[in-house]
Amino acid sequence: MKPRQIQTLLKTLQTGQFWYLFPHYYYRWKRSIDIERTAPITTASDDTSDVIEVHMLTGAKHHVDLLYAAKSFISHYQAPVSLIIHADISVNEDVIKRIERHLPQAKIFTRQKRDELIEPELKKQGLKKCAEFRRVNVLAAKVIDAFLLSQSQRFIILDTDCLAFKPLNRLRELVNSATLLNVFAKDAQAYPYSLPPQDLKNYFEIDIKPYINTGLCIIDRHSIDLNLLEKWLSKPGFPMNCHFAEQTIIAALVSNGNVEFLPDNEYNTARLAEETSCNFIHYCGHYLSETRTAMRKIGQQIVLKQLCQSTGNANHTFI
Hints:
Blueprint: H1 3-15, H2 18-34, E1 52-58, H3 63-77, E2 81-87, H4 93-102, E3 107-109, H5 111-124, H6 128-136, H7 144-149, E4 154-158, E5 162-164, H8 169-175, E6 182-186, H9 197-204, E7 212-220, H10 226-233, H11 245-254, E8 259-261, E9 267-269, E10 280-282, H12 290-309
Parallel strand pairs: 1-2, 1-4, 2-3, 6-8, 9-10
Antiparallel strand pairs: 4-7, 5-10, 6-7
Helix pairs in contact: 2-12, 3-12, 6-10
C-alpha cells in the first residue's frame, strides 16, 4: 500500500467514513478480478471499410473501468471499431500490458508519445494557449489530441464511466449519416459547463447550445477549429483547469453547426433510468457517488455476465 493510500485510510478511520468508502474499495477490488474472466475483444484497423474511431482517455486508477466500457461498447456497437486509447502519465507498463491482453488491437498512446506528436504541431501552428490547456487539464486531450491524432472524418469520444447493455443502433445510424453533424448523449443539466449561462455568450460571443455532454459523442472534424480555440483561450477569464472546461470548449465549437441528441430513453446520462430499461448509461459524477457505486455494483456486473455468456461467439470480432 502506498503512503498516500495509508494516509487516506487513516483519515477515513479517524473521520468515521469507513463504511461510506467500503463499497467503493470492495467493488474496485472485485471488478478488477472479475474482468479477467472475459475473453479478449478484437477491434478493427483504420483501413477497414466503415470503421469508426473511438477515442478513450484513461489513467491507471480508471483502467479497469476502461476495460468494461470498451468491451461493452464494442460488443453492442456491432460494426467495425478502431479503438484509440489516450493514457495519462499515471499509466505504467503493467497497466498497458493488461489493456493489451483484453484489447490487443487497440492503439495506446502514452502521455509521452502524445506530447512528442502533439506539442511540435501546436508550436508549428503558434497555438500557445492550446498547448497550455493541454498542460493544465488532462481532459483537453478529448478535444485537442483526439482531433490531431484522428485519421477519420468523424470520431467517437467515449468516457471510461460508460457502459452499453443493448445494441447501439441509433448511434451507428448517426455515425453513418451523410449529414455533417455532431451527436451527444443529453446531459441531465441544461448547462453543465465551466461558466455560468449568463457568462457563456459574453465569453464565446455565440449562443452555446444546452445539454451537451461529452461522455459519449460523435464529433465531425470540421467542427474543431484550433485557431478559434486559441482565440478564445487567449481571452482572460476562462478556467482552463476546471473539470468541465473541455466539455464547455466542445459545446462552443459545435454550437454553430448541426447538433443532434441521442434518444434519452435509450442513452441515459447520470443513471436517471435503470440498466434494464436503456441501451447505454453514462455514470457521470464523483467517483464515490451513488451513481458510480451503481456502475460498479450493478452495471459492470451486467456487462460481465453478458461478456462471459458470449465468450464462445468468436470473441466479438468485427473486422
